[in-house]
Write a structure and sequence with these properties.
- This protein is an alpha+beta fold.
- The protein has nine helices and eleven strands.
- It is about 35% helix and about 20% strand.
- The strands form four sheets. It has a four-stranded antiparallel beta sheet with strand order 6-7-3-8, sandwiched between helices. A three-stranded antiparallel beta sheet has the order 9-10-11. It has a two-stranded antiparallel sheet with strand order 1-2.
- The protein is globular.
- InterPro entries: HTH_animal, RT_dom.
- This is Reverse transcriptase domain-containing protein.
- It comes from Ancylostoma ceylanicum.
């Protein structure tokens, strides 16, 4: 009873709705203070921290996260992506694009997502410990957590009728597993590599036809889940996470990538923060670039420019 009591809250926080402006695709020269607000897209966030189902959601994440190792397309960071693409045997005729699931969280069918998770759990029940909970218990807890999609905005209360709430702990795991369910019914035999970080996908196919067929299959599985496609630029590079990739005659070239909207702002050298924090920021920036594209002069120049713009000299 004492352990169980940790997972309910007698005085929960009220879930609050926030709008996070999508600025990452804006041109770097755009002055944010002069943007027409009506033209600015936002990402809906419902903060569930301390909410009525927050502790249950935390428990579900702990129990169910091991399922992610059975999602073949899932990657957790750019390291996973680089390792996967370096191990891939790419034929000379290969084509590559990236897909993006549009507004994924708010378009997910919650019942279908729970069903997909339970199917995956059933397939790997011997490999995942539920610490005494049954699959039926997990289903009940998931349904209870998702029923708490009630939030406050301008002192009025609303219920989210469809989709997962961004800001709920269990939402990413459900989204990843639901897309895995869609992908299993969509990928063609000509897909050589298919790796996904939440809703961003990098895919290599034996031909362009395989890529277009797979995209059509993905877009036909759920009326609310739609994928867009991005093709390589004129120089052959295609951005994905913090990398950009070019494949030519079976050879893969991976570079470090910074979005055009990036302002190259890091912790300034004159900041009052402790020295060790500034050292770590610089070290991590350099390590990230070296891990992705060591020895590339273009990357080295970018690093030097970022450091210089933030007050760091070459001698520091």
């Amino acid at each position: 009873m004492k352990t169980a009591s940790r997972f309910w809250t007698n005085y929960p926080e009220v879930l609050t709705y926030y709008s996070l402006a999508k600025t990452r695709k804006l041109d770097q020269s755009v002055d944010l203070s002069e943007i027409d607000i009506s033209q600015l897209k936002t990402r809906p966030i419902i903060s569930s921290c301390g909410g009525p189902a927050d502790r249950i959601s935390w428990l579900l994440v702990k129990l169910l996260s091991p399922l992610l190792k059975f999602v073949g397309s899932h990657i957790v960071n750019s390291n996973d992506f680089i390792e996967a693409i370096q191990q891939c045997q790419v034929p000379n005729s290969a084509c590559y694009v990236s897909y993006d699931a549009v507004s994924l969280y708010t378009n997910i069918n919650n019942d279908a997502a729970i069903k997909s998770l339970l199917e995956l759990l059933s397939n790997h029940s011997r490999e995942v410990s539920l610490c005494g909970f049954s699959a039926s218990d997990v289903e009940t807890l998931l349904e209870a957590a998702l029923e708490c999609n009630v939030f406050r905005f301008n002192n009025n209360f609303y219920a989210q009728k469809r989709g997962l709430a961004m800001g709920m702990r269990i939402a990413p795991l459900l989204a990843i597993i639901y897309l895995d369910h869609i992908e299993k019914a969509s990928l063609t035999k000509g897909i050589i590599l298919y790796k996904r970080f939440i809703d961003d996908v990098f895919v290599i196919g034996s031909s362009y036809t395989e890529l277009t067929t797979t995209l059509a299959n993905l877009n036909s599985q759920d009326v609310n889940i739609k994928f867009t496609v991005e093709e390589p630029s004129r120089d052959g590079f295609l951005p994905f996470l913090n990398t950009k990739v070019r494949i030519c005659n079976g050879t893969t070239d991976i570079r470090w990538y910074r979005k055009e909207s990036s302002k190259n702002i890091i912790l300034h050298s004159r900041s009052a923060h402790p020295t060790y924090m500034k050292v770590n920021v610089v070290r991590n920036l350099i390590k990230t670039s070296e891990r992705i594209a060591a020895g590339v002069s273009e990357t080295d120049e970018t690093i030097q420019r970022i450091l210089s713009d933030n007050g760091y000299s070459s001698g520091e």
